[in-house]
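USER: If only I could read backbone structure tokens as easily as an amino acid sequence. It would mean a lot if you studied the pair and described how this chain folds. Here is the record:
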Amino acid sequence: MDIKQVRDITVIDFDKNRYLGVACDSCGGIGYKEHDLIKASPQLTAYHTGKVVLAELMSLGFTPFILADGLAVEMNDTGKQLIEGFNEVISKLSTKVHLTGSTEENIKTVQTSMGVTAIGVCEKSKLKYKKTNSGDLGLLVGLPMVGNEVLDNPDKILDIDDFEKLFHCEYIKEMLPVGSRGVETELNDLLNYNGLTFNYEKNLSIDLKKSGGPSSSCILTINKEDLYKVKNIVKKPIHIIGSFY
């Protein structure tokens, strides 16, 4: 069985026509426990952490079907609240995703912490990887935000239903959720594996090095004539970063 790493996804050659994809993320110190540095509801913390792995899968062309949580907290009450958040995020998807996981019942915990894994399936012909060409546009949809910014600016960040809408757009060549490494690093990876260079737009107002937090924004590559289609699909900030050559 052939297993390889494609961006943040472990890609498994499942059969003649399909790949399995595995995405992982972690979160700590965000919640209502004593030593949490950012105070936010466990439901919201789980929602955004689950969103990250589901968005990563869909951005590469995978349809998610499993979400597994490893919760380093007790079931009553923090665990139950986290599970509520996971159930909320998967409820927004049109496809059914099964939730499974575990909690910590032996040791008292004083900080909210978790690991999350999602598994999906993708037809090999639909993998969104190495599909960008010279002349294509690079867009940033949503804005890179982290911590309390995410809580305060829901109208400027991508939600899970935004990612699913983009996932279904066949004219989008590649999608890269922006994580802690920032826009510039994610874009440089795309340039390297596509063998391209990039011409940035002048006077960009975006901080290209800022952490994108829980996939609050996403880089898209498209044909120039398809820009209006993206604007009609997602009602979040859209910036042209530049063009590939």
User: Anything to note?
Assistant: The first strand starts at residue 3 and ends at 6. Helices lie at 42-59, 75-91, 148-152, 160-167, 182-194, 227-233. The chain has six helices and 13 strands. The chain has a mean pLDDT of 96.
